[in-house]
Amino acid sequence: MTSTMQAPPQGLRRNRDFHIFWVGETISLFGAEVSLLALPLTALVVLGADASDLGLLRFAEYLPFLALALPLGVLVDRRRRHPLLVIANSARAVLVGAIPVLAALGWLTMPWLVVLATGIGTFTVLFDLCLVAYLPKFVAPEDLLSANGRVSVSQAGAEVAGPGLFGLLVHWLSAPLCLALNAASYLVSVVSLLLVKRPEPAPARVAGTPWQDFYDGLRFLARAPLLRAVTLAGSLHNLAWAVFQTAFLVYMNRILGFNVGVVLAAGAAGGLAGAACAPWLSRRLPVGVTYLAAGAATAVPALLIPAVSGQQTFLALVDTALLVVMNGGLAIFSVLTATLRQTVTPDRLMGRVVAGYRALVFGGISLGGLVTAWLGTFAGPRAILWVAGLVFLSASVPILLSPVPRLRGFGTEEQAVSEPESASEQGAASSSE
Half-sphere exposure of 208 toward its Cβ, with a 13 Å CA cutoff? Predict the structure, then answer.
């Protein structure tokens, strides 16, 4: 079990380091949301990119999540996380800031943009892995759920306000200049990290090789009943979401003729509400019950969206409301899963376990893209939505077949003993005896 959560039980409200960190991370999240739209728009406007180019650009952004998450997880577990966080956001500031500079000089090309997108994605993976592993260093165990909820609220808030903020900024500025603002937001995050005063203890000395570390992380993730269940469910959620999102956009835009931007912003508001409510729900309901409720709130609306019929305006309003509920369920699942990983994973395995989780989850996104491309050759958007709904429903199966529904809270004794030790931990225990 995790034994290195060193933060004193002073309460999250009085935790100065968390609030400084949270403010900086919130600003960088808003900046990243702007760049998510500004990067492809820069390719379109400045370089005259076509759909194939944009697909390559998106692939370059997500490739590091698939190819580098696990080896970077080994690095995270062998080094202090705070310096790595500073390096990651400093590098993202430089790489994102290079795009408007190259555009202004007339040197920006599509190959350069793809290379920079790959670099940005690489340091995003490093930052995300370190973030989850670093948070318990200055947040007490009993405050982790609330801390994860607040970070998720910031993320959902950025998703809600990001498209509108980008629309205003691109109206006043060019897309490359919006990326310059994104680079500045990463620098704000770096400053906030440097202001965190609580010293981070050195990681435990690792006797094994990096390959052994790699194996231990995957072994723990695969053999821990709780983590295995939520990882499988998370992968199915992301596969379903990748299929659903593409079909939903086509369905809303081409069949219903509704404003997709308004619908997505409203749906993101559901994610904001879900992230904010997750700590409140888990304090009033057993964690296992909350997990099941989140799964139902995701699968049921996904199945209702293609089933509802009626006039165009009625359909648009009902489908938007169902999307809000879906995003709320997914956000609750995300907050609960992040807290569960942090409470059942030994600190020395945290980076590798999170890396394995992220690789499998983002693998679900990639597989979902391939499934959607295949289904689109012979099925319409409504039929594809039915498929997505069924996959969302199947995500509840690994949860139901695991100990998760019986969980009453995080860090309970029965939860601890259900998690296996890694091979290296068993060896360490033997040698200590």
Answer: 19
Q: Say how far apart CA 383 and CA 47 lie, in whole Å.
A: 36
- Report the CATH fold assignment for 206-419: Growth Hormone; Chain: A; (1.20.1250)
Distance in angstroms (rounded) separating the CA atoms of residues 293 and 131: 27
Domain ranges for the chain: 1-197, 206-419
DSSP 12: G
Cα Rg of the chain (Å, integer): 22
> Are 1-197 and 206-419 in the same CATH fold?
yes
> pTM for this structure?
0.64
pLDDT per residue over 246-297, tens digit each?
A: 677 777 766 776 666 567 667 777 877 887 788 788 788 888 899 999 999 9
Q: Which residues in 277-290 are b (16+ Cβ under 10 Å) and which e?
A: bbbebbeeeebbbb
Tell me how crowded residue 14 is: count the other CB atoms within 10 A of its CB: 9
Q: Do 330 and 244 contact (CB within 8 A), yes or no?
A: no
Q: Classify 1-197 by CATH class.
A: mainly alpha
Two tokens, residue 89: 């956001």
